[in-house]
Design brief:
alpha+beta; two-stranded antiparallel ribbon; 3 helices; 23% helix; 9% strand
């Protein structure tokens, strides 16, 4: 499974129940993962295709300090109770638009 979204943005995808924010949602799900682990089950999660910036800043264009995390551990990979796996590849596309990357990680 993979959500591939920042912990702080969980409710921005499909919304959360009334009175629950993104952090509370992630904590609740994390507690459920703990219960599953206690039964001896390993949960394997895909890290997503967007790399370190995650889906909230895929192109690494937001400035650090904006309302978007420039680099974040996507949820549920950010959970202590899952095993997160993934891979990265970079395509050299001469037709891609010029993008100004702001975070040091993306500049490299």
């Amino acid at each position: 499974m993979s959500w591939g979204w920042s912990i702080t943005k969980q409710c921005s995808v499909n919304g959360c129940p009334s009175g629950i924010d993104s952090i509370a949602y992630a904590k609740r799900v994390d507690n459920e993962y703990l219960k599953i682990n206690a039964r001896g089950v390993t949960i394997v999660v895909a890290s997503g295709d967007a790399g370190a910036p995650g889906r909230t800043n895929e192109m690494c264009t937001e400035n650090p300090g904006d309302d978007v995390d420039s680099i974040n551990a996507v949820f549920p990979c950010a959970s202590h109770w899952v095993t997160c796996v993934g891979a990265t590849f970079v395509m050299n596309n001469p037709n891609a638009p010029n993008i100004t990357y702001h975070s040091p990680l993306c500049q490299q």
